[in-house]
Write a structure and sequence with these properties.
Blueprint lengths: L12 E5 H4 L15 E4 L5 E5 L9 H16 L7 E5 H7 L6 H16 L1 E5 L12 E4 L2 E8 L2 H4 L14 E7 L1 H8 L3 E5 H6 L3 H14 L6 E4 H7 L7 H17 L5 E7 L2 E7 L1
Antiparallel strand pairs: 1-9, 2-3, 3-5, 4-8, 5-6, 7-8, 10-12, 11-12
Length: 278
């Protein structure tokens, strides 16, 4: 009898589109503000995140779904068609999320938003193939299909009342071509999945994504004005004292995880700068 093939261990690495990571995308607060995200780059480019009619902008849960999708894309050796298949149950477990009817519904909603939320660039998002920041309009996922379990599987659902109306299913999603192209071109920001998911704050997770994009493999110092950081993340708070209260716990998590050696707020006159070290 031939030995059973060894199962490949899950990938610990996530490769993200570096150009996208430097732009705002996911909401990071509980604010009810669901308007368009609009952002101007330092070079005069314009970036907008447009929710589908009647829907909200992608939020903190959607951010985690996005990272897990890119982890699976890397684990699958970056399939040329961008297609990924998985069960909702396995996907939630990989994210470290509790698996129940509520989280199944959250995951379905997140995948739908990632398919329908439009990302629009006018000289803001870099196309790594051409090396130019031109006009682009795309969504994170170009297709999403979720099938309910087969009838033979549904017979077992009566044993689990919590899943009666939200039974698990099989998903097939397709990562958008512009993102795949940037990753294939090597324009990536690389993070470690266990480190990312161990950060308990959505703000800390977003900062981790941003830092690996702007610093790359460098371990030097990176700084920018506090107000500008709030726009890039993005955060809804505007007063420096409020922003510092939101960022300080996230900074402590980044230091504890070894992502940075230090994070400081530096005041010069009425202006504040955030400095990340190491």
């Amino acid at each position: 009898m031939s030995p059973a093939p060894r199962r490949r261990p899950p990938s610990r690495t996530v490769q993200l589109d570096r150009a996208l990571e430097a732009l705002p995308l996911f909401r990071l607060s509980d604010s009810s503000e669901d308007s368009v995200v609009a952002f101007a780059t330092d070079t005069g480019g314009r970036w907008r995140v447009l929710p589908a009619p009647g829907e909200r902008l992608p939020g903190t849960f959607d951010q985690d779904v996005y990272v897990e999708l890119l982890r699976r894309f890397h684990e699958a050796d970056q399939p040329a068609d961008g297609a990924l298949t998985f069960t909702l149950h396995a996907f939630l477990r990989s994210m470290g999320r509790r698996v129940d009817g509520r989280t199944y519904e959250q995951l379905r909603g997140a995948l739908g938003r990632l398919e329908r939320t439009v990302l629009e660039s006018e000289g803001a998002w870099l196309d790594a193939r051409s090396g130019k920041t031109g006009s682009a309009r795309f969504t994170l996922l170009s297709a999403v299909a979720i099938d309910r379990r087969r009838l033979t599987d549904r017979d077992q659902l009566a044993l689990f009342p919590a899943l009666a109306s939200n039974e698990p299913g099989d998903a097939r999603v397709v990562l958008a071509a512009p993102i795949r192209a940037n990753i294939a071109a090597g324009h990536v920001a690389t993070l470690v999945a266990p480190t990312y998911f161990q950060l308990s704050s959505p703000v800390a997770r977003r900062l981790y994504r941003l830092l690996v994009a702007v610093r790359g493999a460098s371990t030097g110092t990176w700084s920018l004005p506090l107000e500008r950081l709030a726009e890039i993340l993005p955060l809804s708070q505007r007063y420096p004292s409020h922003l510092q209260r939101v960022l300080q716990p996230a900074h402590e998590m980044l230091v504890a995880a070894g992502i940075v050696h230090g994070a400081d707020f530096v005041q010069e006159g009425r202006s504040w700068t955030v400095v990340y070290r190491g």
